[in-house]
Amino acid sequence: MRYVDMHCHLGLMRDGLACAREAEVRGIGILDASVTPAGYSASQEAYAACPNVRVAAGLHPWWLSDGTCGDADVDALAKLVSDTPRVGEVGLDFSTKHLPSKGAQVRAFTRVARACAEHPLDGRLLTIHAVRSADTVLDILEETGLVRESVCIFHWFSGTSDELARARRAGCWFSINAHMLATRKGREYARIVPEDRLLLETDAPPSNTAFGYAELERELAETSERLAAIRHTDARELACRIAERSAALLDL
Question: Which of 17, 128, 190, 249 could cross-link 91 (Cys pair, CB 3.0–4.6 Å)?
Answer without folding.
Answer: 128
